[in-house]
Amino acid sequence: MSDARILIAGGGIGGLSLALTLQQIGVPFMVFESVRELAPLGVGINIQPNAVRELYDLGITKANLDDVGVVSKEWALVGLNGNDIYSEPRGLLAGYNWPQYAVHRGAFHMMLYRKLVERAGPDCVRLGHRVTGYAKTDDGSVTAFIRRADGTETEASGTLLIGADGIHSDIRARMHPDQPPINWGGAVMWRGTTKAKPIRTGSSFVGLGTHRHRVVIYPISPADPATGLATINWIAELTLDNSEGWQQSGWFRPVAIDAFIAHFADWRYDWLDVPDLLAKADIAYENPMIDRDPVPSWQDGPVALMGDAAHAMYPTGSNGASQAIIDARVLGAMLLENGVGPEALAAYDARLCRPVSELILRNRGAGPFGILNLVDERCGGVFDNIDDVIPPDERAAFMGRYKAAAGFAIAELNAAPPIIGSGARKVR
Questions:
Q1: Residues pairing with 337 in the sheet
Q2: Number of other CB atoms surrounding residue 152 within 10 Å
């Protein structure tokens, strides 16, 4: 078992979480990442309590997470007229044994990379190496085909290959050559950050507007004691006609604020001035809300998919990064139980592929933001008292069903044993 080596295609959040897990349980590995140099790219993401638990079990501390984000206190939906639709505490305040974090994606990513290099050494990640495909060998192992940043080609052999190479995964394309193209449902997101004063609890995730026209805001840093300002992550979203597909030149590109701010020009309330928040942004990006249709299996013999390569989903449930972390930990547990071979990948696939595929479709149907659909259907989005539109019990039941599907229902998560127990940390 000590000679087994796992190849990881992709050094994003999922790939690095898997590498940290493999280092923890004593399985040799190599990460191949296409970029020449890692950089703290992106804006805000949420790490749910089920994933924070796994990070703690990996030795990522509260102090580490505090350095890259802020503990979340509230999740809330607000109607277009500024009245509350639904709110609930999050993390420890909700009764979880672990907090929820809102973090800067790039800062979080780089923190995972630093931890991995500290523990396994810099040679465990090969930058400027893109895995473009694979071939299964007669002895049951796998050969990864690799293109270096300078255009030269090479190969690497391993016992297993894990495709953690994102929504445009070459591993997935090789495994499922007839997969449909990336799915765009019509929603366009403009994302950015602004220095501003936090609202409500000071660490609230707030969705404002309607299902087809909304803004999401939440802080990803503590407020500065001197100025009261925090880094506020925002997503401005509008659903368009998608009959002709995505017509822009890229999937995630910088954009001028003037290109979209008019859609939110009248969104001013006594507690939030949306156009002012957008206008003061440090930077903004445009990208379509996209996902991929589920596939029947994430495994092909000694090869498996994880993260966005397996289950790219709409970000409506704020659990894409969290699920990638869970993937890594479940895969590690299956290696402990079954050894480093295809049997472990089959057990991982059996555990996660079907329920997470259902989550993809649930998120495509608006995820927890589906309550906004109900408000639109019943009152056109305008109301004085939400209880007259959707009773409290119905709202709570709706959210409860989503949490259960996403794997972070409070009672079940608190009672669940660790995915990788403290007494079984090494593959023998």
A1: none
A2: 8
How many other β-carbons are positioned within 10 Å of the β-carbon of residue 425?
Answer: 13
pTM: 0.93
H-assigned helices in 262-391: 274-279, 308-311, 320-338, 342-364, 370-379
Query: Side-chain half-sphere of 298: how many Cα atoms within 13 Å?
Result: 31
CATH number of the domain that residue 306 is part of: 3.50.50.60
Segments forming the whole domain that contains residue 312: 6-45+106-181+293-366
Segment 151-173, tens digit of pLDDT: 999 999 999 999 999 999 999 99
The verdict on residue 202 lying in a domain is no
CB count in 10 Å sphere of residue 382: 12
In a domain, 238, yes or no: no
| Mean pLDDT per 10-residue segment, the chain (428 residues) | 79 98 96 95 92 96 97 93 91 96 97 98 97 96 97 97 96 96 89 96 93 93 97 94 64 88 96 97 88 95 97 80 96 96 98 91 73 84 89 88 73 92 66
Q: What pLDDT digit, counting tens, does each position of 162-205 carry?
A: 999 999 999 999 999 999 988 888 889 999 999 999 999 999 99
50 domain residue, yes or no? no
The residue length of the chain stands at: 428
Based on the structure, what is the number of domains in the chain?
A: 1
